[in-house]
Amino acid sequence: MIDLHYWPTPNGHKITLFLEETGVSYRIIPVNIGTGEQFKPDFLKIAPNNRMPAIVDHEPSDGSAPISVFESGAILLYLAEKTGRFGGDTMRARAEVNQWLMWQMGGLGPMLGQNHHFRNYAPEKVPYAINRYLNETNRLYGVLDRRLADRPFVAGDDYTIADMASYPWILPEAQGQDLSEFPNIARWHTAIKARPATERAYAKGKEIQPAPAPMSDEAKKVLFGQTANTGR
């Protein structure tokens, strides 16, 4: 059994995508990031960066004590190793998967997250910041679209954790992008959306948060006003 500390965000969806694909037994422990549950002492013991998702594996493959893992990319790598699935079957395949997973973790996620922030949540519109992250989002969409021009999935012929990491972040309308300009992404996105495990994963999110409300000022303070003293 795996405990998944989760909220239905792009990073949270990555893990339910994997777990639903593999059928690993898990239970969701909601972490409402808008009300500050990510700062509770028990959660910080397993996720010291006060971010979800995080997991606790009560049946690790070495048969020893439960193990906790935080950071969505690290969780995907851990689960791929644990199950022997979706991480690449050969050294070369794993290299492809890992470099595109790192691309998502270091580029696609952070840059698109800043796009969301300055377009949708910042208290004042800063044209330079909006244009900076809008353009970087467009560049990254272009990188992904070119990558998918001659292969069905990010790392090649097989669906892997590299796809699971990137898929939840492709939100064209929220990111000021026109998906018709990226036909390879559109084809890839449609294929992943149609997978039964994807449907189940996103249904889990709707169970936790059926209809997301507009972000309150208090939630913005919780999410965007953190310092080293937050949670102490």
From TrEMBL:
Residues 207-232 are annotated as: Disordered. InterPro entries: Glutathione-S-Trfase_C-like, Glutathione-S-Trfase_C_sf, Glutathione_S-Trfase, Glutathione_S-Trfase_N, GST_C, Thioredoxin-like_sf. Residues 1-87 form the GST N-terminal domain. Residues 90-214 form the GST C-terminal domain. Pfam families: GST_C, GST_N. Belongs to the GST superfamily. This is Thiol:disulfide oxidoreductase. It comes from Sphingomonas olei.
